[in-house]
Design a protein that fits this description.
single chain, alpha/beta, 8 helices, 5-stranded mixed beta sheet, 221 residues, 7 strands
Length: 221
Amino acid sequence: MTRESLPSAAEYLPSRLTLPAMQAAVQKCRGCDLYLSATQAVFGEGPAHAPIVMIGEQPGDDEDRKGQPFVGPAGKLLDRALSEAHIDRAAVYVTNTVKHFKYEMRGKRRLHKKPRASEIHACEPWLEAEMELVKPRVIVCLGATAAQAVFGNKYKVTQQHGIFLPHKWAPLATSTVHPSSILRAPDEARRHAEYAQFVEDLKLVKDRVEALTSGRSGTAS
């Protein structure tokens, strides 16, 4: 199957692209089958022209139930890290690569399941439209799924996090870990080390945004 023949959400985008219109239209998206088991689609949230956009993988259980991105444990950790990096959370637009929660049942619990490449591809029109409207100065990919959706499938967050590259959707784009991976760390020492690195990556984001805002290039990695 060629990329062009894969399922796509493109036909479900509203004719007039605005964030409120897409927020409403995404609930009727049938671009892939994930809508069948999800409670609802979870669209991005934040200022219409936020200087920073953060892209995660997909909504989690809390997000699926509440209809908002990054409101579960990973979102709370992100809020804390942004505060420590001196980034105003209210000035950040947060969204996900895939707009529906993909999961598997484990007893009575719904556990995250990584989306397939075809599902990520299907959802790309939503993400691309969001970026075209928000026009961020810096895109921050949280975790491998988002990073590979933005940079290509050979991108490795473990090796390339904190490096800033030009992108068609923003002057600069970079990656760091997804906060959920910090929560899954095997012990307290590992969690502390990974969280500290996460905050350092976010501080670099703050520096690049300030450089771009002040007219400096901010392109040095």
